[in-house]
Amino acid sequence: MSTKNFHIEVSGIQVNVIKKDIKNIHLAVYPPTGRVRLSSPLSMKRESLRLFIIDKLGWIKKHIRNMNSQIREPEREYIQGESHWVEGQRYLLNIIERDSAPQVEIRNKKYIDLYVRPGSDKARREEVMREWYRDRLKKQIPELIPKWEKKLDVQIDDWGVKLMKTKWGSCNVDEKRIWLNLELAKKPKHCLDYVVLHEMIHLKERHHNERFKALLDQHMPGWRNVKEELNEVVY
């Protein structure tokens, strides 16, 4: 597929423009920084794209303001007593050093016991926690995909979990594969359910247009509230 990348700046906002072999314009503002990207058909001229951006400036600024107002949790140091989130619940980290294989356990609905070898540094503690999160998330996803496959009358051939900076999920329509953000392990389960549904709907509608939203309305009427909750705290 032929592509061409450049930037257009309007009112101090820099928009990354990607021209490729598509039929419609797609404008998006990505968390956490409010990065703006415009995907455009190859045939559209630069001035037409500038006018389109100017027309959408109010919408762009609104989304950037919303992202700037999001609550962001401080960077984790993986130290004793630090707050960590699991499926929407806050826990206190309890580090236990012992000369055996690393392990993570939730205790008394209040603590996360992190067992690591003596002398384990921040990077190693983070790695152990991340793999624990990955394992928990991977145990939840298999029950959600068949549910939405049946309701949507679609089929997923493959799925995976990875750390993503700007998206909660993605869908490769041609390969019928979805990816889910590892950070969803920290969110309530209904947020994960929404993201799985969102990505699987792309198998019926590639674009975030009115048909896409109508399908979300049909299968999860309260999806807008869930989306707001999903983006309200950035971990």
Q: How does this structure look, described?
A:
The protein has 235 residues and is an alpha/beta fold. The protein has two domains: 3-69, no CATH class; 83-234, 2-Layer Sandwich (Zincin-like), CATH 3.30.2010.10. 37% of the residues lie in helices and 30% in strands. The strands form four sheets. The chain has a four-stranded mixed sheet, with helices on one face. Strands 6-7-9-8 form a four-stranded mixed sheet, covered by helices on one side. Strand 8 (103-107) and strand 9 form a beta hairpin. The longest helix is centred in the middle third of the chain and has 31 residues, at 122-152. The two termini are 35 Å apart.
Strand content: 25-35%
User: How is the largest sheet built, in terms of strand order?
Assistant: 1-2-4-3
Number of domains: 2
Instruction: Tally the helices.
Output: 6
SSE order: EEEEHHEEEEEHEEEHHHE
Please, what is the average pLDDT?
92
